[in-house]
Amino acid sequence: MSSTTRNASRRQAPAGERVADWADGRLGVYSLAKSNMRKIFPDHWSFMLGEVCLYSFIIIILTGVYLTLFFHPSMNEVVYHGSYVPLQGQLMSEAFNSTLHISFDVRGGLLIRQIHHWAALIFIGGMLVHMMRVFFTGAFRKPREVNWIFGFLLLVLGMFTGFTGYSLPDDLLSGTGVRFMEGAILSTPIVGTYMSFFLFGGEFPGGDFVARFYTVHILLLPGIMMGLLVGHLILVFYHKHTQFAGPGRTEKNVVGMPLLPVYMAKAGGFFFLVFGVIAIIAAIASINPIWAIGPYRPDQVSTGAQPDWYMGFSEGLIRVMPGWEINFLGHTLVLGVAIPLIVVFPLVLVVIAVYPFLEAWVTGDRREHHILDRPRNAPTRTGLGVAWLTWYFVMLVGGGNDLWATHFHLSINSITWFVRIAFFVAPVLAFLVTKRICLGLQRRDRDKVLHGRESGIIKRLPHGEFIEVHEPLDADQLHTLTAHEQYEPAQLGPAVDENGVERQVSRGEKLRTKLSKGYYGEGNQIPKPTVEEYKEITSGHGHH
Amino acid sequence: MSNHDIPEENLPERSTAHGEVSVPDENPFADPGLPPHEHRIQDIDEGAARRSERTVALLFTISMLCTVGFIASYFAIPRDKSIFVFPIGHINAMNFALGLTLGVALFCIGAGAVHWARTLMSDVEIADERHAIEADPETKQKVLADFAQGAKESALGRRGLIRTTMFGALALLPLSGVFLLGGLGPKPEEKLRHTLWAKGKLLVNMNTDQPLRPADIPVGSLTFAKPDGLEESDEDFQQQIAKAALMIIRIQPENIKDKRELDWSHDGIVAYSKICTHVGCPISLYEQQTHHVLCPCHQSTFDLSDGGRVLFGPAGHALPQLHIGVNQDGFLEARGDFAEPVGPAFWERGAEK
Ligand code: HEM
Ligand code: FES
């Protein structure tokens, strides 16, 4: 190439393009951008919940890295000489000492600590709500089951990351939480004592757990979560986002705005909004003021000890469980601790993970689903989801039984009994009530389609009767309200096969049929209006 | 749609095929297609658009000012100054100023970007095609054939010896890692069964660091004690106090209901482990009238006039009592270690004696 043409081409291409050319020759960015730059994202407020989680995770990492610059993960005892007068001269671990240092002597340190902690609470709360959105709209169905599992793992790991982080400052409150955890580990049959000694490097509290939790908190769990998060987002891109039914929206398309520029500006802007709100919360609302709580001592405790909210349900489980203990052959089975924390706690979480597979098994549906369900159109699923939430909140209430007791002057005993009963009864009630409500809403939709919307206009008929005028729906609304699919309940099939041989019906098959009836049988969903019904009503006398 | 492998006849039909706009006469519920775009005021009125532009620019400017404010606060505000902010109360001035300026600086960037996107960027909805995720049959056949070819060329199926030994080697290797983890802690052995208490150990007041005499324990008081010789500055203080912490109360001897408790008391003075038998919180609340103690963590309640029996709550067994007496100098002393492990139960704990 002659120097003149080279100069000419250099003058022509703007700098940005030349950088892109360079990168394309090495990374293939043009092919990558071709399919992604104008990728379409549908718009709905509930689709922002996942973004809240993503952004608070980023905020946690940024602030967490800052905290590592000052935090000393060591349990060596030192005498405090910092600027917080009430604790001067007191013995405390280096971990606690350095957290005081961050809070009182590093400019802006307290702010970063509080942002880190608030972001952690919002992160985990955001994941729970985001998961509920995915659950109630059926977005977990094929092809998104794997992403459901990724999200589930993020929630569980997030809880443990939060717990280990909360324990790092080695203050009286978090130390009590760690002791709680030690008690839970000790209750594990056969290996519990060993596990506890291995975790703490000997007897509780030992001198190791802060350093060990630190590695877990800042490297191991965030590393795994980062991997899962990237995988989660790649899958969101790959599957393309789900959308609600509506005019022009089908199972085979995705309708919305392009990534560049609209979604990039909205989502990018939303990051700053989330960060801004968390920073303002951290400016005005103090969180975990460890100086007021003091350093950890295994023989001291502050009353009203409470974990961060996301651990509250385990607290409730353990508070309402009767103190069963079985002694046999020189061994102790600590059921009072093991059942709530080693059996029920994981169970509460695992039911979330397996739900998509259960529902897919009941429906037998192997098609892809990209149009979201309105929660009312899946009454049994919605009922189950609300039942789970109720269960979760009953246990949260149980976790604060002493707070309820002191605030509302109730007896701890009656609250405990209330929670024990509610543990079994409340989810069932919640399920029934929710299902009822869903069916009612379905019926209303059906009426709207067949008879039109109530206009609020009252008309007097010639013979004196008053009626409300119903306005017929337009084509968009008719389509939106009838776009959902309805399954037929599964049938067991003939007891005899085509050759006249008796067919063995497996127990699984029977169960599946039963469940399918519960989901889609008569009375468990309201048949949506058919075209014939609609035509018959509209062709005749207009309304009524 | 890949309907091919569904044995079910009960799957709902997907009637409206993609993009197909049916005649409403035939099916009133058919997809009418994307609604026409509705213009926003900014799309048709340049004045409104310019107002939007100014709003966005204002938000970005506020952000810049706040960042300047952040830097100014960083230098100007004394670290320990506290201010009164209604309705929050007294808070640290620096934290408040830094957080607020940073927060508003961030928020305004976000608000500006979102306003820009909503009012000035095109809001025409676009439809993108979805493509089936499942591969078509040819691709699938090709991949399976490639795999079979690769597997065949490796001869793994034919050379059983290689296969067995390879899996054996790979399965054994992680054991090294498991054993390395063995170094994480010592074996429990009998460690959870013993505390610092032993025959002749004096009971030392936790607060005053003085050995206790019976006269120091009035009826109705709750005193915390530790074994003589254990100092806060000791390297293993935390481990030791986690097991040895003691609470001492005084009950009229005739009110002690449990025979062994009476035997192990001195003149109505009884000493119990302070560590809750549920999951190990220190017990801190004492009801003088009833001699009940309450664990603040999960409200287990123990009756200290009846062998430390559990009255209420999730604890599974009684609080261990320490056998005490008075030595020849008139100080309270232990007559031995606890007879059973203190604190939460564990697998090897065994039946209560
Ligand atoms: C991913 C989820 C994470 C969650 C949910 C989380 C949560 C927490 C919580 C609740 C605390 C206690 C803060 C307090 O009130 O004192 C904490 C402390 C801490 N975190 Fe994180 N964190 C996460 C990730 C990280 C990462 C990635 C890092 C560093 C790279 C980090 C570094 C720290 C440090 C150094 C502390 C102790 C300092 C202090 O307590 O002031 N964290 N974390
Ligand atoms: S630790 Fe005392 S009741 Fe749970």
TrEMBL record, chain A:
Entry's EC annotation: 7.1.1.8
Key words, A-Z: Cell membrane, Electron transport, Heme, Iron, Membrane, Metal-binding, Respiratory chain, Translocase, Transmembrane, Transmembrane helix, Transport
This protein's record includes keyword Chloroplast: no
Disulfide bond recorded as keyword: no
Swiss-Prot/TrEMBL cofactor(s): heme
Sequence intervals crossing the membrane: 45-71, 117-136, 148-168, 213-238, 259-287, 333-358, 378-397, 417-434
Membrane topology label: Multi-pass membrane protein
Domain of life of the organism encoding this protein: Bacteria
A GO CC term attached to the entry: plasma membrane
Pfam families (alphabetical): Cytochrom_B_N_2
UniProt domain Cytochrome b/b6 N-terminal region profile: residue ranges: 19-245
Enzyme class per UniProt: translocase
Reaction equations catalysed: a quinol + 2 Fe(III)-[cytochrome c](out) = a quinone + 2 Fe(II)-[cytochrome c](out) + 2 H(+)(out)
InterPro entries linked to this entry: Cyt_b/b6_N, Cytb/b6-like_sf, Di-haem_cyt_TM
Protein known as: Cytochrome bc1 complex cytochrome b subunit
Gene behind the chain: qcrB
UniProtKB/TrEMBL annotation, chain B:
Membrane-topology descriptor: Multi-pass membrane protein
Gene3D superfamilies: Rieske [2Fe-2S] iron-sulphur domain
Primary location class: membrane
Residue stretches spanning the membrane: 56-77, 97-117, 166-185
Subcellular localization, as worded in the UniProt entry: Cell membrane
Alphabetized UniProt keyword annotations: 2Fe-2S, Cell membrane, Disulfide bond, Electron transport, Iron, Iron-sulfur, Membrane, Metal-binding, Oxidoreductase, Respiratory chain, Transmembrane, Transmembrane helix, Transport
InterPro entries: QcrA_N, Rieske_2Fe-2S, Rieske_2Fe-2S_sf, Rieske_Fe-S_prot, Rieske_Fe-S_prot_C
Biased composition (Basic and acidic residues): 1-17
PROSITE patterns: RIESKE
Cofactor(s) needed by this chain: [2Fe-2S] cluster
Domain of life: Bacteria
Rieske domain: residues covered: 262-333
Entries under Pfam families matching the protein: QcrA_N, Rieske
Chain intervals for the UniProt region annotation (Disordered): 1-40
Cellular component, GO annotation: plasma membrane
Entry GO MF terms: 2 iron, 2 sulfur cluster binding; metal ion binding; monooxygenase activity; oxidoreductase activity, acting on paired donors, with incorporation or reduction of molecular oxygen
Function: Iron-sulfur subunit of the cytochrome bc1 complex, an essential component of the respiratory electron transport chain required for ATP synthesis. The bc1 complex catalyzes the oxidation of menaquinol and the reduction of cytochrome c in the respiratory chain. The bc1 complex operates through a Q-cycle mechanism that couples electron transfer to generation of the proton gradient that drives ATP synthesis.
Assembly and oligomerization: The cytochrome bc1 complex is composed of a cytochrome b (QcrB), the Rieske iron-sulfur protein (QcrA) and a diheme cytochrome c (QcrC) subunit.
Similarity comment: Belongs to the Rieske iron-sulfur protein family.
Protein name: Cytochrome bc1 complex Rieske iron-sulfur subunit
Organism listed in the record: Streptomyces sulfonofaciens
Classification lineage: Bacteria, Bacillati, Actinomycetota, Actinomycetes, Kitasatosporales
